[in-house]
Structure formats: C-alpha cells, structure tokens
Design brief:
The chain is built from five helices and five strands. The protein is α/β, with parallel strands linked by helices. The chain has a single domain, classed as 3-Layer(aba) Sandwich (Rossmann fold). Strands 2-1-3-4-5 form a five-stranded parallel beta sheet, with helices on both faces. It holds the Pfam family UPF0004. One of its GO terms (molecular function) is metal ion binding. This is MTTase N-terminal domain-containing protein. Keywords: Cytoplasm, tRNA processing.
Length: 117
C-alpha cells in the first residue's frame, strides 16, 4: 500500500513506547509527516498510517510493542503499519513476520518514514 498522493486526505497516528528519546523522535516524525501533508491523529483513532516507535529495553517492552502493532492493525486492517525504534532494530525479522506490518524501519532511517510511505 502506498499513500504518496498529495491530494489525498491522509491521517497518521504515532504510538510511542519507551524513553524520552523516543518521545522526542516521535515528535520529529510527526512534524515530517505534517510537512508531507499528513494529518496526525491520536493512536486511538482510525488512521491510514500507523507508526509504532518501539522500545526493547525489557521483555515487557517487546510485548507492549507487539500489542500496539496488533491494535493498530485491528483499528484499520487496510492501513499502512510501520514499526521503527529499538524493537524494530533488534527484532526486524520478527516484526516483518507479523501479519499486517508493511514496513520495518531501523533507527538510522526513522526520520525518512514520510518519504518511504
């Protein structure tokens, strides 16, 4: 799925798990998406794009990441689901195998998500 048409009303939701760095980086991702004509909405809302900025400090953090991925997919099965952050970096293969995950983005590429979708 691609949503790169600029005249389409596009809604993006970002879920942030983990540290303050992730919160800061999620704000930057949101800003880049807005610059690319996305409307950023609450992760609890229906969106066309869900970005899960993940954590993997503990096993619980990994579990929460997988749970948020499943929640996003259940909110809109047709949405594009992108997983980024430390869990995506450490467990890229596991993330990619989750049905409904469209893109796994490592930490070094997370600020180019707007261009990748």
């Amino acid at each position: 799925m691609t949503l790169s048409q600029p005249d389409t009303f596009r809604r993006a939701a970002i879920t942030t798990l983990g540290c303050k760095v992730n919160a800061y980086e999620s704000a930057l991702i949101a800003q880049k998406l807005q610059q690319d004509q996305w409307t950023v909405v609450s992760p609890k809302d229906t969106a066309d794009l869900y970005v899960i900025n993940s954590c993997t400090v503990t096993a619980e953090a990994g579990r929460q990441t997988r749970q948020e991925i499943r929640r996003a997919i259940s909110r809109n099965p047709a949405a594009l689901v992108v997983v980024t952050g430390c869990y995506a970096e450490m467990e890229a293969s596991a993330c990619a195998k989750i049905p409904g995950v469209d893109l796994v983005v490592g930490n070094s590429e997370k600020f180019s998500i707007a261009e990748q979708v």
